[in-house]
Amino acid sequence: MHEAHEDEGPTNLEQLLRQLERTVGHERRSEARVSLALLVEAVGDRAFGPLLVIAGLITVMPLVGDIPGVPTLMALVVALSAGQLLLRRKRLWLPGWLLRRSLSQRGFLKGLRRLYPLARWTDRLLKPRLTGLTRHLGLRFIALTCLAIALCMPLMEFVPFSATGAGAALTAFGLALIARDGIVALLALGATLTTAALVIQALW
Question: How many CB atoms neighbour CB 178 within 10 A?
Answer without folding.
Answer: 27
